[in-house]
Amino acid sequence: MERNDPVDRARAIFRQRHGRAPDVIAVAPGRVNLIGDHVDYAGGLVLPIAIERRTAVAIGLGPSDDGLSRISAAEISEERALDLAKPRTPAPPDGPDAFLNYVAGPIDELRRGGLEVPRMDLVITSTIPMGGGLSSSAALEVAVLLGVRHLAGRPVDVLELAREAQRSEHRQAGTPCGIMDMYVSAAARSGHACLIDCRDDSLRRIPMPPSGDAVVLVLDTSTRHELSDGGYASRRADCEEARTRLDIEFLSEADPRLIESADLPERVRRRARHVVGETARVAGFSAALESGDLRTAGELMFESHRSLRDLFEVSCPELDLLVAVAEAHRDRGVLGSRMTGGGFGGCTVTLLEPEAVPGFLSDACGAFVARFGHEPASFVTGAANGAGLSD
Ligand code: GLA
């Protein structure tokens, strides 16, 4: 359980703010992807875990004299009064109302789907760093959808919930993301990674290694990317161009020989190489995890980073430095390391033996401070449970 448990805080703040208890608290975790980035929207394989950082949304039905719902976001000390029954226009992504795209946005999605949205107040608390590549927005969308659907008596399964969150992200937040972040936030199980085949969104849970053998360390460069800007969308468009030119259903299934021989712009060819190579690496990593071959799994993480850096061009100097330090610690218990998520900043994920954590952290932080002038945030995480409800 986290310090400052977000569920307890959401309950307490709701009572303080509204003078009554919430009817339900929905909670959803952030995620870190072990391997398989920039392939979900190309029909590839991904292998994320839910992290032990969560967002809680306390929801209380009615009553309000003016017909408006109060939405309070505790971590950013913002509150807005809205009529949730009315269609909404998405807020500008860099404006003060941007957070509403992840709260009122999913509710608008439900309304569009024909659900009669009850009058309600919402209080949001979170321990997921915002905008840091750990899917704080997906967690918020999933928690809102789970809680509101529960109160409306219209629950759906985890995949439908994830698809609804993804549609909301596309329409309300303007990010053409894949399904990975919301799906793992909705569907994860403690102690397991989620192997998702994004051709048909099928999911298989793979046990994580015992914590005595290896742990997952997240290092946050605190370099904030903005996925809504062009970088993500242009990579996605490159993949779509490759798929269309190769005339196949999923770029992840392209024959590597075809990628080399086809008439493709060089940039697009590099993107396609990444997608096919990364999908093969996820399959290899999963098999290695299942057979306990953590060395092989770790090497595939390093390879994945090189591919994201050189072929997909979504890394940055901060991420590259942290991965380089990890590579230098291969003989001291570091198994593998890579950038994780969308890139352009954000976090690295490192798989390492538990005894190796202090030495690696001290060297990684030292090198980072020397070059960039500030310390990266860090935490070790187990694979946590997906979204759920509490009263
Ligand atoms: C972001 C998107 C995901 C996925 C990753 C890259 O997190 O939301 O759908 O594309 O980037 O793997």
Keywords for this entry:
alpha+beta; four-stranded antiparallel sheet; 11 helices; 391 residues; single chain; globular
Short summary:
By secondary structure, the chain is α+β, with helices and mostly antiparallel strands. It is built from eleven helices and 13 strands.
Structure explained in plain terms:
The model has no long low-confidence stretch (mean pLDDT 95). The chain is of the alpha+beta class and 391 residues long. A six-stranded mixed sheet has the order 5-4-6-3-1-13, sandwiched between helices. It has a four-stranded antiparallel sheet with strand order 10-11-9-12. Strands 2-7-8 form a three-stranded antiparallel sheet, sandwiched between helices. Helix 2 (104-112) crosses helix 3, helix 2 packs across helix 4 and helix 8 runs antiparallel to helix 9. It is 40% helix and 21% strand. It has eleven helices and 13 strands. It has helices at 6-18, 104-112, 136-151, 158-173, 180-187, 230-246, 256-261, 266-291, 294-310, 317-328, 357-372, and strands at residues 24-33, 45-46, 48-61, 69-73, 78-82, 120-126, 192-197, 202-207, 215-220, 334-340, 347-352, 377-381, 388-390. Alpha-D-galactopyranose binds next to helix 5.
